[in-house]
Amino acid sequence: MRRSAARNVSVFAVAAAVVSIGAAAPPSHSPPVGTPANTPVKSPVAAGYGGAIASVDPDASAAGIEVLRRGGNAVDAAVATAAALGVTEPYSAGIGGGGYFVYYDARSRKVHTIDGRETAPGSADASLFVENGKPIPFEEGMTSGLGVGTPGTPATWDTALDAWGTRPLRQLLQPAERLAKDGFTVDATFRSQTEANQARFADFPDTAELFLPGGQLPVVGSVFKNPDLARTYKELGSKGVGTLYRGELARDIVRTVRKPPVAAGATRVVRPGDLTTNDLRSYETEWRAPTRAGYRGLDVYGMAPSSSGGTTVGEALNILERTDLSQATQAQYLHRFIEASRIAFADRGRWVGDPAFEDVPTKGLLSQRFADSRECLIKDNAVLTSPLAPGDPGHPAACSASGTAAPTTYEGENTTHLTAADKWGNVVAYTLTIESTGGSGITVPGRGFLLNNELTDFSFAPANPAVHDPNLPGPGSRPRSSMSPTIVLDHGRPVLALGSPGGATIITTVLRTLTGHLDRGLPLVDAIAAPRASQRNQATTELEPALWNSPLRAELEAIGHAFRQNPEIGAATGIQRLPDGRWLAAAEKVRRGGGSAMVVHPSGNPSGG
Known about the structure:
By secondary structure, this protein is an alpha+beta fold. The protein has a single domain, classed as Gamma-glutamyltranspeptidase, small (S) subunit (Glutamine Phosphoribosylpyrophosphate, subunit 1, domain 1). It has 21 helices and 20 strands. Strands 1, 2, 3, 8, 9, 10, 11, 12, 13, 14, 18, 19 and 20 form a 13-stranded antiparallel beta sheet that branches. β4 and β5 (134-135) form a beta hairpin. The two termini are 27 Å apart. L-glutamate binds at residues 117, 457, 481-482, 503.
């Protein structure tokens, strides 16, 4: 999500780190009067040595930096940062959710990925969200036990640390545990997001007690504490993540899902879920081969299905590679960007689902031959019509589409992303989520965290009954995601890593940032800040206000584009390896309150331009 202003963080002794971090770049927000002296300063860009962290929140970034300062590596720092985000960004991420972890190992020069996506109960089938022959309203799936999948985040931490970490989970959870215990300062965004969820939070006593104390919204400037989450982190640290999958915590989760604790007198329809202790006990992360797309002589690695991020970003890049975007006008660039996105989403919708249940043609979707067969649909003076029919990656036919078109189904827009690097050259791009803002709205009693509603990322019913939908629920299946943690290599060495929240807009945000930086020559922090467009095989393309109010809109409308306005798309973070060996960390300047970029030892001009 985001985090504006400062935190009341007596989390750990980061005073020395904060002093040096503050020297890396001018702060984008001044701490309010009365903020503790050891509160991290927020800056959207920092450059230097020893490692780097970029996240949406200064407390979380500071947690990762402290781990790096104490000799931990990028994986250790990523876990510490993610745990802190579970405290300060509880409506976007936490141990009640899941995500995707992409790791570059400097020693082997290889990219590895962990699929930590949530899974459906073993009893689930294609009619999970269907009653009386019709899909239930999305809102009723969102706020229910029915939408809760087995959490994957704790298992992801365990898998990553077991493979590459150097510090015990117990130690890495301590900063987040202290932050939950001592609290952070409420800002306007946290309050507004609580307010947006006030009605449904009020229907669950444990959620209301935590996020609406005394029945009131949290006051901006007040200190928000979560002692239940502090105790839960302490338990995870001492007993290991197995307690969430096989211990008392697992039983608490199952009890909450199967009988959601709804307030007396509440009129909301809150369906129970069918999650069992066996579902949690049998959960496993999946090792996936990363996706790879060659682009401008670089290797772009991403997350394979069950995420659609790697295949869809990769296909769009392959389509765009035939155009010299560096020489295109801004209108020409945006036109090509929009059309490549439209095509890639059409193919995603037909072919990408959980590979345990679907024969996903990952290799074909990422082939240049297939991209070329789709690229020739793009015309300089005309616009394709959505929903666009998919192509067939198994039998590419030039300038043709096969089958029947289907619209893109809805996907929740909240998530968080962090990027980490260490002094040895290891890099992590990690996107994690509980799906909707506030997830299911259901807090596990006495545990201090919200449960996900990730199963609503499945199609409730086929978008078009005439088209096979690869994203229907099934027993133990993983809903398709758009999360796109990405690492870019040049001859086996990292040059860039990035990702974003934003549901299906994640893909277009990552694509826009990559092309803005690699093709248009923008410094990374400016490529992240650039106004965004998002086309997802829909009748209209979303534009942020800066593009909506620009003459470019009329120029693009003149050739047939149709637009709708979106106040804010995504909230990216990234890390770049500069030619002189320094790391540059970059985050949002404004979106969602601005992000937090930090390095261990700041040095020189942080712009990277």
